[in-house]
Amino acid sequence: MLSGFYNQGDTTWSSRGPSAKLVVITQFRTVRLSATTTPMAQAIRIHEHGGPEVLRLEAVTVGEPGPGELRLRQTAIGLNFIDVYQRTGLYPTSLPAGLGREAAGIVEAVGSKVRGFSPGDRVAYALATSGAYADVRLLPAERVLRLPDNVSERDAAASLLKGLTAHALLRRSYRVRKGDWIVVHAAAGGVGMILVQWARHLGARVIGVVGTEGKAEQVRQLGADHVLVDTTDLAPRVRGLTRGKGVAVVYDSIGKDTFAASLDCLQPLGMMVTFGNASGPVPAIAPLELGRRGSLFLTRPMLFDYIKKTADLRKAAHELFAVLGTGIVKIHVGQTYRLADIATAHADLEARRTTGSTVIIP
After folding, report:
1. Roughly what angle, to the nearest 10 degrees, separates helices 190-201 and 310-325?
2. pLDDT band at 357, cuts 50/70/90?
3. What band does 95 get if pLDDT is binned at 50, 70 and 90?
4. pLDDT tens-digit profile of 101-143?
5. How far apart are the first and last CA of the chain?
6. Closest CA to 358 of 46, 76, 74, 54
7. What is the pLDDT of residues 309-332, one digit of tens each?
8. From CA 266, how far away is CA 262, in angstroms rounded?
9. CA 246 to each of CA 224, 261, 354: distance values in angstroms, whole numbers, following the listed order
10. Model confidence pLDDT, tens digit, residues 48-72
11. How far apart are alpha carbons 219 and 356 in whole angstroms?
């Protein structure tokens, strides 16, 4: 069950009075509500793992916020590959389940013991638990972030999870320094575009890797020093650009198909940061392989380990909002979808038909 939701399933019920009735919204039927029944919110849920077709739009009831909670009317929801991993079962989850980790919107109601928030506040969040694919939901106030005036709700929903990921990659997994050569895979994707811009601001020399010439032009406009189209002969091309030296760090969200080539791009003592599985999980590797390639370092960061403490979350968000609000990092929303069209959004993301960030509109 989604946190903060009371699922009505496919139940039909009546309240007091002969005219009060409810027919539940699902993906396959229409719902009608009389004026005397409790208004229903909508949420996407899965009852089995599989392709985009398992995504179901269902009616849910959202209660009043309890102690330490906010009720949020969501105006924009972020789409991320982790949602696909959960839908397919690559990242196991109990069923039935909701999907989605980030969104932005307006506070509707505030529970007891909540300080610093009021109805009408513009806020955003990125959570370790799912359930963002909804128009209204309850949230723990301590994990919610107030938006500054110069960051829009759409940009926040499009970038918070990706931006916090970029912060963890650039400032903590490996702290990028001026003059570092770096490789960014999927540089035209949501995280990739943020990485390219932020890394250039930090003084890095950025080699972006993309799948098409159209995406290459977008990444060039973001300031990448070099852009490679496809991963054919990746390591020799990277070493050619760096005069044989290799790069200090590779940020690889592709996974299985690019892992070995990414290792071969690194300079001695370089850092391999594998943080995604777009082509499938990375196979097991013997530690001796890292030594043979120059005493390399390998890490598989998980964002929510970096922002588990509320203080760390707020510090990372503050730095992210600073580069967003000043225009150092510009968010490219390449496409938007209605919540009811979430299956199409998932299919497009998996087929790599999207560019930049994707926003779902409730």
Report:
1. 80
2. confident
3. very high
4. 999 999 999 999 999 999 999 999 999 999 999 999 999 999 9
5. 20
6. 76
7. 999 999 999 999 999 999 999 998
8. 7
9. 17, 12, 30
10. 999 999 999 999 999 999 999 999 9
11. 10
In degrees, rounded to 5, the angle at the alpha carbon of residue 50 between the alpha carbons of residues 48 and 55 is 70
Longest Cα pair distance anywhere in the chain, in angstroms? 81
Paired tokens of 91:
């990242």
Tokens 């001796």 label which residue? 288
Mean pLDDT calculated for residue range 288-304: 96
Q: What is the mean pLDDT of residues 158-183?
A: 97
Give CATH superfamily name and number for 162-304: NAD(P)-binding Rossmann-like Domain (3.40.50.720)
- Report the pLDDT value the prediction gives residue 81, as an integer from 0 to 100: 87
Rounded (10°) angle between helices 190-201 and 213-221: 30
DSSP for 48-90 reads S-SSGGG-EEEEEEE----TTEEEEEEEEEE--HHHHHHHHTS
Q: Name residue 182's amino acid.
A: I
pTM of structure: 0.82
Domain parsing of the chain, residue ranges: 5-147+332-361, 162-304
Cα–Cα distance, 278 to 90 (Å, whole number): 11
Say if residue 38's pLDDT is above 50. no
Homologous superfamily of the 5-147+332-361 domain (CATH): Medium-chain alcohol dehydrogenases, catalytic domain (3.90.180.10)
Cα 111 from Cα 8, distance rounded (Å): 23
* Residue type, position 146, single letter: R
**Residues contacting residue 339 through CB under 8 Å, at least 6 positions apart:** 42, 44, 57, 77, 133, 134, 135, 360, 361, 362
Question: What distance in Å separates the CA atoms of residue 15 and residue 219, rounded to the nearest whole number?
Answer: 56
For residue 7, with 0-12 CB atoms within 10 Å meaning exposed, 13-18 middle and 19 or more buried, which class applies? middle
Q: Rounded to the nearest 10 degrees, how much is the dihedral formed by the CA atoms of 326, 221, 278, 54?
A: 70
Instruction: Quickly list DSSP for 222-256.
Output: TT-SEEEES-TTHHHHHHHHTTT--EEEEEE-S-T
Report the pLDDT averaged over residues 158-185.
97
